[in-house]
């Protein structure tokens, strides 16, 4: 069974920085796209950033120039460096990966449990 464990959330003042990390574990053959999503209270979950296995990245307009996504294929980890944080960035952030496991040998979407980021004004 594949699991994703996130870390790095917390409380930060407006303008501050946080770094989120996500580690995949289990019987993994390969990981395609890694991504970060967020969900604020009363709102739908939305894509923040994603990174393909080859390294190409995609960012939501509201984080461009402030957030940077990266991955370490050998360690099976994804990170999200968040700078110049704003109160509207407050949300639960979820890690998401397209994972091929040794059990199914097909790509399945896996979600982390979420980590809370709170930005105070």
Return residue spans where pLDDT drops below 50 for at least 5 consecutive residues: none
- Computed structural class: mainly beta
Beta-strand proportion:
over 45%
Residue share in helix: under 10%
- Average predicted confidence as pLDDT: 96
Alpha carbon gap, first and last residue: 40 Å
Main sheet overview: 7 strands, mixed
Rg on CA atoms, Å: 14 Å
Shape by Cα distribution: elongated
Helix and strand sequence: EEEEEEEEEEE
What is the number of E strands? 11
Number of helices: 0
Q: What attributes does this structure have?
A:
seven-stranded mixed sheet, elongated, mainly beta, 121 residues, four-stranded antiparallel sheet
Write the SSE topology.
Layout: E1 3-7, E2 10-13, E3 18-25, E4 28-39, E5 46-51, E6 57-59, E7 67-72, E8 77-82, E9 91-101, E10 107-111, E11 115-120
Parallel strand pairs: 2-11
Antiparallel strand pairs: 1-3, 3-8, 4-5, 4-9, 5-6, 7-8, 9-10, 9-11
Description:
With 121 residues, this protein is mainly beta. Helix content is 0%, strand content 60%. It has no helices and eleven strands. The strands form two sheets. Strands 2, 4, 5, 6, 9, 10 and 11 form a seven-stranded mixed sheet that branches. Strands 1-3-8-7 form a four-stranded antiparallel sheet, with no helix packed on it. The radius of gyration is 14 Å and the shape is elongated.
